[in-house]
Amino acid sequence: MTAPDDGLKSELLLDEIKRRDRMGDVVDAEDELVKVVIFTSGDAGYAFYGADIKEILPACVISWVPGLPEYLPGLINVRGDIESVIDIRHFLGFERIDPEKCLVIMAVRGDFRSGILVDSIEDVMDIPKSAIKPPLTTLGGVARGLVAGEIEHARGVITLLDVEKLAAGLNL
Amino acid sequence: MRSRGNARDGSFVNLLFFSACGVRFAVDADQVAGTAAFEEESEEGPPRLFTVMGCGDQSVDKRGATMLTIKSNNLEPFRLVVDVLEDMAGISVGDIRSLPPLIEPFALQRGMWGVIVRDGKLVLLMDFQRLMKNKGPERVRDGGD
Predict the structure, then answer these.
(1) What's the number of domains chain A is made of?
(2) 3-class SS of residue A9
(3) ipTM for the whole complex
């Protein structure tokens, strides 16, 4: 057996790893955390900033209103407040599905306030702001104008959508 | 028909409730001059509400169809057919909500201006005068778009 030796390569490596860990802790502490709500629509994962999401509602009855554009399935009654609902699938290029099989997330940003239909909620988590990368995926059409960035998640790369851009796209 | 309520004093407005294509509507009873059962025997006759609203052909419940005679400012009354006439009730003006901002511009174009919750379900408030103003009286009489 070899006696403990300060010059052991493993000791040097271990010191380096611990030093990096300490540095990493310092960096993480300084990196602002942002909450994101990860959801699915179609066969893909997306997210909104948690700060823009007021609540997540279970599947509820959507009252159809004649004459609305395709991206507005109708109205919902949220404890007496009448809210509009947007079908995000329309903007992401997916086929419309039965709205009553979906969840509604209530998005509020400035003057904008509406329910948004999503297929399911995957996760609500805090991530470092630095983990949000510029969008690299090749989203087409209207969806491109909604993207704030991309984040890594257990289910793969998630496209972060911006409620403010969605509102602007609706000409509010 | 005569509304006994006075919206200006914050009390109530008399609404006539009806449905068309599965959607529940209500209109200020003051706008309705009369109602009559409607037998759809031919393609001639007053237009359906959804046709007038420019919402295309929708499934229609022909059981108990009712013809509404609508008062018209400075013009002859015009007639519309709805699926089912439900009832008339006084509704507190305070219970009427405006439509959400995303919905309102599209709804106003077709005469819908507010919403109430009745029996847990949403009822769209219709203003036939507004509909006629937006669509034009001749187009309303001809059946919309």
Answers:
(1) 1
(2) helix
(3) 0.81
